[in-house]
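Q: Could you fold this chain for me?
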Amino acid sequence: MGDELAGKVAIVTGGAGGLGRAMVERFAEEGAQVVIGDVNEARGKELANELGAAAAFQPTDVADDDRVQRLVDFAGEHFGGLHIMCNNAGIGSSRRRFLDDDLRDFERVMRVNLYGVMVGSRCAALHMAAHGGGSIINTTSIGGINAGPGLMTYRAAKAAVIHFTRSIAIDLAEHGIRVNCLAPAHIPTEINATYDQSRIIERMQPLQRQGTPQDVANAALYLASDRAAQVTGIVLPVDGGTTAGPPPISAETFLASRNESSGGQRP
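A: Sure. Below is the predicted structure, expressed as structure tokens.
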């Protein structure tokens, strides 16, 4: 256990599982007191009990303005303040190709993945502006950076989170509030449990290593800590290099494909 966040109070939405749980655990390891905001009361209470005095659970649906404000108020009442706000809660959207997508999930996905981030940021920023500043960390996705087929509502929401984050980073800087984005990719969590991660990594990720929720939590720790005191308005991919570009094609594969396209004739 370290002390990088000693004396700090953090909120992590979607903190009962996946990336959020890893953030909660990492922050607590570094001395923070953490409020877990989540719709899953059973898992949220279980995690809070595991962490003891370092954590508390507050049931929260980020699509509900009043519940988000209550979450921020609870942090102040229970732990005496708020220094770090991680707007991490999110849901997936239809995987259908666009012509087959009736957009029936648009309102709910946007309400959770974008509006929840906006409301969480505003509620936290109002407190932070009156108490010396703080750090807001919003979870976007590689889907908000790189274009691709399917998941159109999800991609649109996550792209909007990026632009929103950079915009309020400018707007809130005068109050000593830093605002940044994390953009995970190919991290095994419940939201992408049905994807073949190994195949995706082989085709899309230069670092042929399976990322973990702990990798994302370590990046969140950096943005939350004083190590990032001069960092605001950035998007930090935790993606094994995916946003830089796909892995290089091996010489053998390249030559084989070239020979195939030329009918097996060498130049």
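A (continued): The chain has eight helices and seven strands.
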